[in-house]
Specification:
The complex is a heterodimer. Chain A is 11% helix and 27% strand. Chain A contains one helix and four strands; from the N terminus they run ββαββ. The longest helix of chain A is centred in the middle third of the chain and has 8 residues. Chain B has one helix and eleven strands; from the N terminus they run βββαββββββββ. In chain B, a hairpin with a 5-residue loop joins strand 4 and strand 5. The chains are: A alpha+beta, B mainly beta. The interface between A and B is medium-sized, with 25 and 26 residues.
Amino acid sequence: MADQTKRIIFKQGNGVIAIIIPAINEKRSIEEIARKDVPTGKAYKIVNVSEISSDRTFRDAWTIADNELTDGVGD
Amino acid sequence: MSILKVNTIQDKGGNTIISSDGSGAFTSNVAPKDNTVTMAKLSTSATEADNVKQRVAKVWVKFDGTGTPSIDDDFNVSSISDGGTGIFTVNFSSNLGNDNYALAGSVGGNSGRIMGQEGTYSTSAVTVRVNDFNGNLSDEGRNSVIIFGDSA
């Protein structure tokens, strides 16, 4: 089971962040999922799920500074 | 107790039904009939009949798109990408054979919601959107995606 306590975030072309949720039956590690499912060349960061707001009222305004995406780049 | 040792079983017409090369592996020419599909037939074995492979969903997932989105259960899914309100990409654990697959999606929890496919089909992922009855993108609690198609 992939680590359900983690999420992967990256910035989409429109500037809004995308949040990757690991599947519960996936055998890959969270790092392997990040490299596979983050679009090629996009920088990402792995965060604790507790850091993601559950209030989605302004979801489409969520963004992040590029220099915070420091954990790797999508394959 | 008796033991029957044979390498080949044939029908009355001389047609081989089951044969063995002596190593313990059998080749079966018995085609599965309706209502005889078992879990054993759902393996990735190269000896499985093609009609069984075509009947099996290659991807399925149920997920919650509200609050902090999460996946309830899945098959052949590595992750879901939450791209914003009502936009979710299902990433496949193993790629499909081509992008001519059939996709079905449903939304539960509130009336008038509908799920549709967004963008292009890909062998590695597919994006769906959820709209409310006014056509606006919407986050909903019970989302399901099922895909039938060819394996890679």
